[in-house]
Amino acid sequence: MTSVTLVDVSKTFARQATVLEGLNLHIEAGELMVLLGPSGSGKSTILRLIAGLEVPTGGRVLFDDEDVTDVAARDRMVAMVQQDGVLYTHLSVRDNIGFPLAMRKVPKPDADREVEAEASQLGIRALLGKMPRELSAGHQHSVATARALVKESRVLLMDEPLATLDARIRERTRLEIARLHRDLGTTTVYVTNDEREAMALGDRVAVLDENGVLSQVDTPRAVYHKPASLFVAGFVGELNYTTVRLERAENGWWLPLGNDRLLVDRSVVSTRPGLEAHLDGAVIVGIRPEHLVVAAPGTPFTECLHGTVGRVEDAGSFVQAWVTIGAWRVKVRFKGDQRPVSGNLIELSVDPHHLHFFEPAGGAAL
Ligand code: ADP
Ligand code: MG
Questions:
Q1: What is the pLDDT of residues 136-165, one digit of tens each?
Q2: CA dihedral defined by 63, 64, 67, 72, rounded to 10 degrees?
Q3: Last residue of a domain, one of 190, 210, 235
Q4: Containing domain of residue 194, as a range?
Q5: d(C-alpha 265, C-alpha 139), whole Å
Q6: Is the CB of 41 under 6 A from ligand 1?
């Protein structure tokens, strides 16, 4: 197994703005690293730099301790599954999968053995005699994956491989990819702009912002619960946020919201050392929809927010509603059996441990 390290990598295309600048990223041997970012953030460019299909403008690419920056793509032993995993329509499934072997002039019996092993691995052995047009989108994807895997590779790169599949097949294929990674253990870099896919698949997720800057590299759990910035918090999940002025309270801080004041007590304050400097100044406060709940009777008023229910939407297993607290409109999730009524007043409670705080300028987490 091979680790991949990008050291201070920059990429500027001729007559284009800089896409990547000073990017540092280490992918452990055997890890499944997801690159998550909006369209145009440079995800494919990073994959192509790892594959050797692009040359960095600055910086180095390492496989283990070996500097491969100047090694040609065909000598890097990298397999790549592209977005639409295009198959050769005039070749059978067997010949599609075997194509890289035929290119390398591997003797036919050996090639057949490898193709069959790979097809079995992906559960598509029965399809070897078929033509691509006879296959479902999910099976076409598996064939493209098998084709990428027949050549022995140190690193597997997947560029939005599920983007063109519809939702139901996408989830099943995602499970296949997870299983494949578990079985093969090959170091994998997986690109997507779908945060649910990233969270479900990644050992770790590297989140790129729209400018191609790495905002955070962490486990799915950490990027969700401890986002490094407002951008990450909003990209890996939903976040209600607004700018507030923190005021000193007797045993913590007050957070004025609408006509209420939430008490951020000492136990929370002590976990956010960066906040102290913002006392009596503006900060951005954020809360995820699932952390705003209908207040139980007896909830201390210092944990309650009062609002007016706006639009209510059914989402099947839960009900989603917009609630206005002063001038702040927030999204709230209710259990299926709690149906808020549009126009009614509502009392919500917030556990201050679930609050997120960010710098008003730049959005770095505090
Ligand atoms: P993503 O995969 O995250 O959508 P890309 O890596 O494809 O982003 O592209 C990042 C930026 O680099 C985009 O602005 C894109 O237009 C630009 N870009 C990518 N490839 C080239 C190229 N070969 N020539 C010029 N600009 C490019
Ligand atoms: Mg791309």
A1: 888 888 898 888 888 778 999 999 988 877
A2: -30
A3: 235
A4: 4-235
A5: 55
A6: yes
